[in-house]
Structures are given as structure tokens and as C-alpha cells.
């Protein structure tokens, strides 16, 4: 699967002359990585695989070298031009301070110039290129180049490195599986070339801890803590970059003065440093950080040391943990126990590096909160342990509101992380749970084309029977509407008898199966969803019954429990369909009045979200008490949709669908047309005529890209890939 360059990168490739960075550099000169990257992509597009591989590897080496040089120079200049001591006895603070600032600036210029072999400004890449490297995009190009060069071991490592940071990338997942099946590929070829040492140690430590292997857990968790604190310092050093303006100020009078500019840049650096804890606590490929990453190490270590009989180190870890949460009752009790076991004369102190970490963080937070209070701006505090007294009184209410908002966003993030990639190209997520003010709710568009909607509407008119399609009720919910329903089995029987077009009946099976795959991949990737019931339904307003109408087309309810609005409870017991897990509605038209779907609180009155029907729109949600919903009255016209219910329980799978598929297979056989060519059942892959296909005939991918307040779901990437295997 070959990636295509983004628009910004293409502009860089086109604007730079060929070979802008490709010439052999002098030994002391580090060529800017964005130039190497542009030349590498140019060679890639020209299918010069050897040149592309060389340049892309050099770009990655240059990127790593630049970061290393910045870290080393800032650490060295911090020592050489340290801000220590006070001003001369009679000298002003301003001169003393800025004298040190100038010395450090001079130190950094010389240090970086000697390490890079060029002016540091030559290494400032665009935001788009920096983002590509943060997302490991060069490895996506590299894996194709290495594959074409028949260097399978390097291709596999590059592919795996990209996939670790982009686990939602559907096509790369398929490519990884192809590599696994290839002869000559070894398991140790699947290496993460950008692996963070602290994550490997942390995950191993937690595994030993959960297996009660405390000696091994102690070793790996201590290693993880050391590496994490080291990574934190490296991240903080990289925060001292140029001021990033949110928007350009063109008028001269709008430019900040000396002290305002210094303050703005310094606060930007402090905020960046504070966010570093989220960066090291976020595993590659995840969008949320591990909560309380540093304190959790200490909590795990104090218990593990206690289990191996080292109460002195257990007490030290407990004391260190209390620097973050000084009122934590269980740990305070453990401290008393350790003190008793060690003897009252033994002094227990927290680790010096943890004490420094906490005090420095508190100092930075204090400065940031002062700036927010007096100079404006916002601060998304990354830590749960920030003392309440540190926050200015007039910001506390906003801080609490932000914390509540962050908690909800954390739930949304966790929900997003459980999602898989959508299995069909072109489908868009119009609203997610956050935008719909709930959980496990989503709206997809472009699931069906206009022509497919018309074909299914033709099916409803041809079937034409009044009633719900399976219990012969005229209208199960209101006398003000005429209700028509058609099951998949009834549709296939009508097609068999020649009463409806065979293709329309088959499209009903295809559209519902496509919806199942979308909902399964979004909400429950890797866990099978079975059809519980499929129902093509239309509700038509009875014209003479609309005056003074007060009821709903479908009263507020939940799909797998009995809603009790007064008690604000939902009883999961018969006659409710307690085995239903997810629900969906695939709309076919919008040429009517009313008929919109709405969600409510448990009181069945407070509306939390609304969904307007339109052709090809699929709304999906979990079937429990978290999603009470109803349908407003259809006051004019005819509203048609496919109602869908799903279950994880195979024993409750829709039997009528099995029979419908058997009829379809029999019909296909009669026409001497193998069924597999046009339709496959729920346990196989299915494809509707609205899907986009890659050249090898598969449905193409849609790429989508813990602390609360992290990234929103990103827009589908502009790059698309094709199969190179």
C-alpha cells in the first residue's frame, strides 16, 4: 500500500529544485530534514526506490540529529549561562537578568551552529512536515521502497514502526498481515524502530506486577520511571522553540511591547513543559495518556517493594507518592505501618528527583495561573494532583467546569480508542457521541447513494401491504399514521413470486449487511455483531388525522429495557428485548415533514440530541438505558427507513435472515450466477454498489486519525494508498 504525499508536501516537492538536499553533505553538516524528505518523496514518486530509501532514511536521521542537538545544546547552555545568584550590589535586576539571557542566546547559537554545520534557522520545517514526522509518515514510504528493493526485513520493520503509531490505518493492517504470511519474514523483523524505552519497560513491569512477580516488576518499573523522567527532560528542552502566534498581527500598534512579548513567549514555554507529561504518558498510536503516569509508578513500586520485603524502599516510594496526593488515606496508613516496621528513629524521605519534579511543576503552574488571571489566556492543566489552593479564587469555578468537561472528553476519547476503522470508502462521521451529548451514539452519511435509496423506496411501494409486516398491526404506535413494514424474508418471498424486482430485494440484504459492518467496526471491532431483526418500515401521515395532534410517531423508549421515566430507571427484563446490544436506522428519504429522531435523558422529556433523516444517513447507538429515544410525529408525507437491531448473542441471531439468504442463493443458482459474485452473507465480506474499490478489488480504507482535553477526532487524511504487493 503506497502512500500519496499531502498537498503541503507536494508543494514543497514542486518548489524545491531537484537535488536541493541530495548532494553529499560535508561530514560536519546536518542537512535539513525537510529538504531530504522532499527529495525522498520526489524519488519515490519517480519510482526510484533505491534513491527514495536512501533519502528518507537520511531525513529520519537528520530529524533525530536535530532534536538531539537541540536537547544537548540547551542542557549545556543551561549550565554555562545559568541563572544563578542575585544582581550586583548596586546593579539593576533588568541588566543582570538580560545579560544572562543574551549569554545563553549566544551559547545556543554557537552550539547549534557547530553541531548542525549551518544556521539553526535553516532547520525550521513547516508545520505539515513536522506533523508527518510526528506521525511517522516517512516509514510508510520507506516500507514500500524497501519492499520494491526486495529488502523484506527492512520493509517489515518500517511498516511495523508506522503501524504502531497509526493502529487505525486499515490498509497498513492488511499489509502487516500480508508480511506475516510471506516466506522469509521472521517475527523479530516486526520491530518498532522508534520505540520509547520507558513504554517497553512499563508494560513489562505491569505484566510482572499483575502476575505477582514482584522482583521482576520492581526492576522493570524502576527502569520505566528512570526512562520516563529522562524522556520528560528531553521533551521540556524541545519546548524552547520560537513563539507560535495564533494569528498574525499586521497593525504595528497591535504588536506587544518588550515585557508583554517576553511574558507571552515564556508562558508558552511553560505550558509546553507542563504538557510534556502527557506526551511521555501517551503510548504511540493512542490518543489518551495513562492517567497519573509518574505517581502510578510510585504507587505500584511501594506495593511491590513491600511484597518482596524491602520496607525501606517501599516507604521511600510511599513518601514520594504523598508529594502528589498528601491526603491519600490508604498510603498514609501504609506509611504508618512502614514507620513502625522500620523503627521510629528511622527517617523516611521522598526521593530527591521526585521532590524536584513536584516543586518545579508547582512553580510553573503558579506562574501560568498568575498569567491566566492577570494577562488572559487559558491553561489546560494536565495533572489531577494540582493542589486546589494553587488556583486563583476567580479561576476555581472555571477550573471545576473544565475538569468536568475533561472527564466527559476522557470518556469520549476512551470510546474513540475502542473504535475500529470504517470498512468502506467515502462514508463520513457527521456527529459523534460528544456532539450528540451522550455516549455510544454516532451518525454516518453517504452509506447509500441516491439511486439505491430510490430502489429501496420502489421496493416499499411494490410490497405495498399495510401493517407492520410481521404482526399485521395497522399502526403499532399512533392512529395518526399509516404504518407499513417489510421483513427481509418477506421481501425475498415477494421477489421469488415475481411481485417485486429481485435486485431491489437483494439490495435490502446488502444495505442492511453494509450497515452491520459499519456499526460493528465502529463500536465493537473484533467482536461479532449478529442481526437481531431487520425491518424496512414506512410511516405515512393520515391527512385527516393531523389537526390538533399531540402524540409522537414513536414514544420515547430504550431498545433493550423497560424505561421508567418517573423512577429514572430502565428495567432489563421481559418483555423487553434484553439481548439487543446495538441499534441502527438507515434513512431512505427526507421529503416529508416531522419524523426526526431525538434522544432524551432518562426522564424521557429532556432532549439531548436530534437527528434529521436524509437518504443514506445511518444513525447508530447502543440499545441500553443510556440512549432513550423517540420519533417526532410525521405530519405530512411518507418517511421510510431500514430499522436495524443487533446482538452479540448468536443464539438470538435473526433466523428469518438465514432463510432469506437461502432463498437468494437458490434464486442465484437458478439464474446460473454464483451468489458470491454479487452478495455474501453476514459471515462473509459484502459489497454494495456504492463502495469505492482499490485496484485489487477490495474495499478501500478510510483513514481517521490521558489527559482530558486531548485531540479531537481528526479529519480523514488526504493521502490515499494503492496496493503495491
TrEMBL record:
Record-linked PROSITE patterns: FE2OG_OXY
SMART domains documented for this protein: P4Hc
Highest rank taxon of the organism: Eukaryota
Region (Disordered): 397-419, 665-725
Signal peptide feature range: 1-22
UniProt-recorded Gene Ontology molecular function terms: iron ion binding; L-ascorbic acid binding; procollagen-proline 3-dioxygenase activity
Swiss-Prot/TrEMBL keywords: Coiled coil, Dioxygenase, Endoplasmic reticulum, Glycoprotein, Iron, Metal-binding, Oxidoreductase, Repeat, Signal, TPR repeat, Vitamin C
An annotated GO BP: negative regulation of cell population proliferation
InterPro entries hit by this protein: Leprecan_dom, Oxoglu/Fe-dep_dioxygenase_dom, P3H, Pro_4_hyd_alph, Pro_4_hyd_alph_FE2OG_OXY, TPR-like_helical_dom_sf
Coiled coil: 211-238
EC number: 1.14.11.7
One annotated Gene Ontology cellular component of this protein: catalytic complex
Homology family: Belongs to the leprecan family.
Protein name according to UniProt: procollagen-proline 3-dioxygenase
Organism: Anser brachyrhynchus (Pink-footed goose)
Organism lineage string: Eukaryota, Metazoa, Chordata, Craniata, Vertebrata
Gene of this entry: P3H3
Amino acid at each position: 500500500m503506497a502512500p500519496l504525499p499531502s498537498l503541503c508536501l507536494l508543494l514543497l516537492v514542486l518548489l524545491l529544485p531537484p537535488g536541493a538536499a541530495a548532494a553529499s553533505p560535508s561530514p560536519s553538516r546536518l542537512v535539513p530534514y525537510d529538504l531530504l524528505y522532499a527529495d525522498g518523496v520526489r524519488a519515490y514518486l519517480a519510482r526510484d526506490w533505491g534513491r527514495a530509501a536512501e533519502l528518507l532514511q537520511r531525513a529520519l536521521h537528520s530529524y533525530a540529529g536535530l532534536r538531539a542537538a537541540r536537547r544537548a545544546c540547551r542542557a549545556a547552555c543551561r549550565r554555562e549561562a545559568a541563572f544563578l545568584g542575585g544582581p550586583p550590589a548596586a546593579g539593576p535586576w533588568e541588566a543582570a537578568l538580560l545579560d544572562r539571557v543574551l549569554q545563553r542566546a549566544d551559547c545556543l547559537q554557537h552550539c547549534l551552529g557547530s553541531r548542525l554545520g549551518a544556521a539553526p534557522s535553516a532547520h525550521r520545517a513547516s508545520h505539515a512536515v513536522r506533523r508527518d514526522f510526528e506521525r511517522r509518515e516517512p516509514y510508510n514510504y520507506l516500507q514500500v521502497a524497501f519492499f520494491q528493493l526486495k529488502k523484506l526485513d527492512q520493509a517489515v520493520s518500517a511498516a511495523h514502526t508506522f503501524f504502531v503509531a497509526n493502529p487505525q490505518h486499515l490498509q497498513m493492517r492488511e499489509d502487516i498481515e500480508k508480511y506475516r504470511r510471506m516466506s522469509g519474514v521472521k517475527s523479530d523483523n516486526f520491530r518498532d524502530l522508534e520505540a520509547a524505552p520507558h513504554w517497553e519497560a512499563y508494560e513489562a513491569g505491569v505484566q510482572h506486577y499483575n502476575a505477582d512477580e514482584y522482583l521482576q516488576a520492581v526492576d522493570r518499573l524502576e527502569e520505566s520511571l528512570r526512562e520516563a523522567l529522562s524522556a520528560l527532560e528531553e521533551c521540556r528542552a524541545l519546548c524552547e522553540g520560537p513563539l507560535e502566534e495564533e494569528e498574525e498581527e499586521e497593525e504595528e500598534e497591535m504588536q506587544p511591547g518588550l515585557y508583554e512579548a517576553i511574558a507571552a513567549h515564556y508562558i508558552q514555554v511553560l505550558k509546553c513543559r507542563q504538557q510534556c507529561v502527557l506526551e511521555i504518558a501517551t503510548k504511540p498510536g493512542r490518543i489518551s495518556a495513562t492517567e497519573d503516569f509518574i505517581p502510578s509508578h510510585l504507587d505500584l513500586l511501594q506495593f511491590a517493594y513491600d511484597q518482596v520485603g524491602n520496607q525501606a524502599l517501599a516507604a521511600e516510594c510511599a513518601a514520594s507518592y504523598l508529594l502528589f496526593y498528601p491526603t491519600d488515606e490508604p498510603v498514609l496508613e501504609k506509611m504508618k505501618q512502614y514507620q513502625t516496621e522500620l523503627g521510629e528513629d528511622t527517617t523516611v524521605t521522598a526521593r530527591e528527583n521526585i521532590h524536584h519534579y513536584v516543586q518545579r511543576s508547582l512553580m510553573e503552574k503558579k506562574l501560568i495561573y498568575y498569567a491566566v488571571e492577570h494577562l488572559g489566556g487559558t491553561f489546560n492543566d494536565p495533572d489531577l494532583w494540582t493542589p486546589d489552593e494553587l488556583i486563583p479564587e476567580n479561576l476555581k469555578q472555571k477550573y471545576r467546569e473544565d475538569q468536568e468537561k475533561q472527564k466527559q472528553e476522557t470518556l469520549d476519547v476512551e470510546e474513540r480508542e475502542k473504535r475500529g476503522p470504517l470498512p468502506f470508502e467515502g462514508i463520513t462521521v457527521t456527529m459523534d457521541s460528544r456532539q450528540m451529548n451522550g455516549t455510544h451514539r454516532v451518525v454516518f452519511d453517504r452509506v447509500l447513494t441516491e439511486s439505491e435509496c430510490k430502489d429501496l423506496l420502489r421496493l416499499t411501494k411494490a410490497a405495498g401491504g399495510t401493517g407492520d409486516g410481521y404482526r399485521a398491526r395497522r399502526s403499532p404506535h399512533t392512529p395518526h399514521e399509516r404504518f407499513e413494514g417489510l421483513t427481509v424474508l418477506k421481501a425475498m418471498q415477494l421477489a421469488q413470486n415475481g411481485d417485486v424486482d429481485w435486485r431491489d430485494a437483494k439490495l435490502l440484504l446488502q444495505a442492511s449487511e453494509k450497515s452491520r459492518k459499519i456499526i460493528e467496526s465502529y463500536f465493537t471491532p473484533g467482536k461479532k455483531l449478529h442481526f437481531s431483526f431487520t425491518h424496512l418500515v414506512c410511516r405515512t401521515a393520515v391527512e385527516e388525522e393531523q389537526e390538533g395532534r399531540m402524540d409522537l410517531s414513536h414514544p420515547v423508549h430504550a431498545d433493550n429495557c423497560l424505561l421508567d421515566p418517573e423512577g429514572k430507571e430502565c428495567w432489563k427484563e421481559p418483555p423487553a428485548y434484553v439481548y439487543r446490544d446495538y441499534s441502527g436506522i438507515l434513512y431512505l428519504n427526507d421529503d416529508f415533514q416531522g419524523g426526526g429522531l431525538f434522544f432524551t435523558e432518562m426522564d424521557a422529556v429532556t432532549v439531548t440530541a436530534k437527528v434529521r433523516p436524509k437518504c443514506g444517513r445511518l444513525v447508530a447507538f447502543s440499545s441500553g438505558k443510556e440512549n432513550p429515544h423517540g420519533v417526532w410525529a410525521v405530519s405530512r408525507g411518507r418517511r421510510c427507513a431500514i430499522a436495524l437491531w443487533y446482538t452479540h448473542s448468536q443464539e438470538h441471531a435473526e433466523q428469518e435472515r438465514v432463510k432469506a439468504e437461502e432463498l437468494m442463493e437458490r434464486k442465484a443458482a437458478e439464474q446460473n450466477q454464483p451468489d458470491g459474485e454479487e452478495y455474501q452473507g453476514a459471515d462473509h465480506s459484502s459489497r454494495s454498489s456504492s463502495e469505492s474499490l482499490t485496484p485489487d478489488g477490495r474495499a478501500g480504507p478510510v483513514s481517521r486519525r490521558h489527559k482530558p482535553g486531548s485531540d479531537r477526532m481528526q479529519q480523514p487524511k488526504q493521502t490515499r494508498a494503492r496496493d503495491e504487493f
